[in-house]
From TrEMBL:
Keyword Transit peptide on entry: no
Protein name: YggS family pyridoxal phosphate-dependent enzyme
One Pfam family it belongs to: Ala_racemase_N
Needed co-factor(s): pyridoxal 5'-phosphate
PTM annotation (N6-(pyridoxal phosphate)lysine): residues: K36
Swiss-Prot/TrEMBL keywords: Pyridoxal phosphate
Gene3D superfamilies: Alanine racemase
Family, similarity comment: Belongs to the pyridoxal phosphate-binding protein YggS/PROSC family.
Span of domain Alanine racemase N-terminal: 22-228
Any GO molecular function: pyridoxal phosphate binding
Organism, as annotated: Candidatus Cryosericum terrychapinii
Family matches, as InterPro entries: Ala_racemase_N, PLP-binding_barrel, PyrdxlP_homeostasis
Length: 234
């Protein structure tokens, strides 16, 4: 199966090859290492192998592991990728560098804040609930288009979009979703400014190649780097 370093190198090689082919120019996608349930020594292995961005799903777990200390010592970007709860908005904003699962509640609150001195987070991706699943956060594509058409001011807080496909979706269904979200991303970039809306986070360990082919420039990889997840690891 290989070491963490070997798996990360393989993911990077495959992702970069596809990205350059899809984009038609040099460059590489952001690779966010999903570190949910991973203990600090394994996270450090990934960092030593070249990882520069990690994604955590839970505020308390991230605090317990003290991944934020790695920001200074290793130049790491720590992204929040989990479901948001309104009572934890402030705490998340104060410790994470980015929120990739931003919802309308968080973005509305941000728009009303004048003094952001205590806020660490500076990059926000609006979560697209492309499968219109009740258990997921974010907004559906029709809702986002309606808000954009109305000139909703807090949309100017976003740097891009993030989506998670339904767990049971076939590759054909995923391709349709990724294509649809990519179209929406380009619409928003046109409306809000392509220099502002730059990040499209789509694709995980089992389908990141498909996502990149449909325009993703940020992928979230957990098991593809760390191997099968074990709750006993933390």
């Amino acid at each position: 199966m290989g070491s963490i370093a070997e798996r990360l190198a393989e993911v990077r090689e495959r992702a970069c090859l596809l990205y350059r082919r899809a984009a038609g120019q040099p460059g590489e996608p952001h690779i966010v290492c999903v570190t949910k349930t991973q203990p600090l020594p394994r996270i450090l292995e990934a960092i030593d192998a070249g990882a520069t961005e990690i994604g955590e799903n839970y505020l308390q777990e991230a605090i317990r592991k003290n991944v934020f200390a790695l920001r200074e010592s290793h130049g790491l970007t720590v992204r929040y990728i989990g479901r948001l709860q309104s009572n934890k908005y402030n705490a998340i904003l104060q410790v994470f560098d980015a929120v990739d699962s931003a919802d309308s509640g968080l973005l509305e609150r941000l728009y009303g804040i004048q003094d952001r001195g205590a806020q660490k987070a500076c990059t926000f991706l609006l979560e697209v609930n492309a499968g219109e699943e009740s258990q997921k956060g974010g907004l559906t594509m029709p809702q986002i288009r309606e808000l954009a058409a109305a000139g909703t001011p807090w949309l100017r807080e976003i740097s891009g979009l993030m989506t998670v496909v339904p767990l049971q979706a076939t590759m054909q269904m995923r391709a349709r979703i990724y294509q649809s979200v990519s179209v929406l991303f380009h619409e928003l970039a046109s409306d809000l400014g392509s220099s502002r809306v730059t990040l499209l986070s789509m694709g995980t360990s089992d389908d990141f190649e498909l996502a990149i082919e449909h325009g993703s420039n940020m992928i979230r990889i957990g098991t593809g780097i760390f191997g099968p997840r074990s709750l006993s690891q933390v």
